[in-house]
Amino acid sequence: MFLVALVHKVLFGTRFVFDHHDLSPELYVTKFGRKDLFYRLLCFFERQTFRMADVSIATNETFRDIAISRGGMEPDRVVVVKSYPEASRFHRTIADPSLVVPGKRLIGYIGIMGEQDGVDSLVRALAEIVHVRKRDDIHGIIIGDGPELPRLRAMAAELGLGHVLRFSGYLSGQPLMAHLSAMDVGVIPDPPNEFNDKLSMNKVFEYMMLGLPIVQFNLRQAIRDAGNAAIVVREHSPRALADGILALVDDPQRCSEMASVGRAVAEREFRWTTEARRYLGAYRTMFRRSLDVNDQRHYPAS
Fold first, then answer.
1. What are the distances in angstroms from CA 162 to CA 96, 141, 155, 158?
2. What pTM was estimated for this model as a whole?
3. For 132-183, what is each residue's pLDDT tens digit?
4. In order of start, what are the domains of the chain with their CATH numbers?
């Protein structure tokens, strides 16, 4: 990105805002397990992109720290804007009747399905619950798309989950809300690693807005975002994830309390109107700094 910014800044004086949503160096390490020449190149590219940026927008405080410490940006040029859903469009509706089974609790996931997202742990956890724990009061829904979806479908079939686990594919609008509104527990199966540990995941905010108790692995930023709305599974394994899911399913009072906590935090803090003001403020900061620089050029100090 810095090469594109460089051309436009040099030739046209264009201002550049870096909306920082992904950690390419950490993602490379997670996918390939090494810090080699390509990792060092990604770090160099990231650093140059920050250097080119007039303002950087960070998705959370961890990203802001990276922009300052690793990217060398001045603190007043980094603005945190969180990706909260719009409350007027993201709320409980009438649940999809095909997902409501009397006497059964629906465990669900929403999101992208890539190798680093760990959705296979949820599939294996459901197999543990159904075939090893012999529970017939649990079924699952996985909402979303991604490169791992065909493999996950095949895995579910091999594990004999055809009658228990449904893959909806990508959904939006009213069908999405109807599916989410049928869920009793939201799962975050992303494995603990250098990449996931720093991310603010949209599904955390979405589960909390819908009043869904959460089960997740030990992810630093997700724990910070979810707070007491989540059970944190310390061991990274499908068996431990199954333990966390059943701990919630078998304790309706705890489920209700966690749901209330998550919803209360969401209603109090997850306001896109507030984030929108911060977002616009980032641009105001950039234009104000540009005007100040121009004033200094035209009216140098005596």
1. 19, 11, 10, 9
2. 0.86
3. 999 999 999 999 999 999 999 999 999 999 999 999 999 999 999 999 999 9
4. 2-84+271-298 (3.40.50.2000), 97-269 (3.40.50.2000)
